[in-house]
Amino acid sequence: MAGVCGGIAEFLGWQPRSVRVLWLGGTFLTGIAPGVLAYACLALVMPGPDEGAGVFRLEDHRTQ
Asked: I need a surface site. Which of 8, 31, 61, 63 has the fewest CB within 10 A?
């Protein structure tokens, strides 16, 4: 909803769907409240797509 999983997926270089599935699974396994609270905190703390542009990109630091 707030783009948290999409931002994490972009940072890690993963598919957004994979991060969403893992997040939902972890949320249900921990009793829902911790996952929802962590998501809300990350939604407030994480920079938006324009705010963090160019600051740190994992692709810039990967070795090939």
From this structure: 63
